[in-house]
Specification:
With about 230 residues, this protein is of the alpha/beta class. Helix content is about 30%, strand content about 30%. The strands form four sheets. A six-stranded mixed β-sheet has the order 2-1-3-6-15-16. Strands 7-4-5-14 form a four-stranded mixed β-sheet, covered by helices on one side.
Length: about 230
């Protein structure tokens, strides 16, 4: 089996284990991205076997996948409380379980759903686990389109190295119509302090730092699934 196939199989095993935490009658937050899609597929298989749940998707892409697979959807208008959210992450700091998310472009909706959840189960492969956030993985920051040049200038002044995200040759827009600045940093020694500085910038809507939200990390490894808990 190739390394990429092994990695995919490891993530799928972790996603299946996450789906087994869902119980009858729950409201489930459905994350975004390729790893979260594996969890939606695993949940759909359990629904086909009789599990009764409803999901709140964190992106239009996840909503479309859920509908195609037969996962019933709801919204915060019907349910203000989420029992469990299952999502992926771009980086996980092992010591604190702080995450970087947003490479898929859905960080605002993902954080809204995660913040409304009793539990957040994060499914990753072992390459996403780090001692300290940053480095090779930039931090996505969602910003308003109006005046984005001034926002990016202020991000630079804070020591970030922001790059406006593109989709092909065009500017990337989130489902909410916002932009994403991917901020490169050598490391993030104090995520909470950085979050506070970024949030104080007028025009910043949300950051991809998920602090104190993940309750469980399921790490897919070739030898099995490792569980980290907060």
């Amino acid at each position: 089996m190739s390394p990429s196939s092994t990695q995919e199989a490891s993530k799928r095993a972790a996603a299946m284990q996450a789906a087994m935490a869902i119980e009858d009658g729950m409201v489930v937050g459905l994350g975004s991205g390729s790893t979260a899609a594996l969890a939606v597929e695993a949940l759909a298989a359990r629904i086909a076997q009789g599990l009764r749940v409803v999901g709140i998707p964190t992106s239009e892409a996840t909503a479309a996948l859920a509908r195609r697979l037969g996962v019933p959807l709801t919204s915060f208008a019907e349910h203000s409380h989420v029992d469990i959210t299952i999502d992926g992450a771009d980086q996980v700091e092992r010591r604190s379980l702080t995450l970087i998310k947003g490479r898929g472009g859905a960080l605002l909706r993902e954080k809204i759903v995660a913040s409304a959840s009793d539990r957040m189960i994060v499914v990753v492969d072992e390459t996403k686990l780090v001692a300290r956030l940053g480095g090779a993985t930039p931090l996505p920051v969602e910003i308003v389109a109006f005046g984005s040049q001034t926002v990016i200038a202020r991000l630079k002044a804070l020591g970030c190295a922001p790059t406006l995200r593109l989709k092909g040759d065009e500017i990337f827009f989130t489902d909410g119509g916002n932009l994403i600045a991917d901020c490169a940093m050598a490391e993030i020694p104090d995520p909470a302090a950085l979050e506070a500085r970024l949030a104080a910038v007028t025009g910043v809507i949300e950051t991809g730092l998920f602090i104190g939200l993940a309750t469980e990390i399921l790490i897919g490894r070739p030898a099995g699934v490792e569980l980290l808990q907060r």
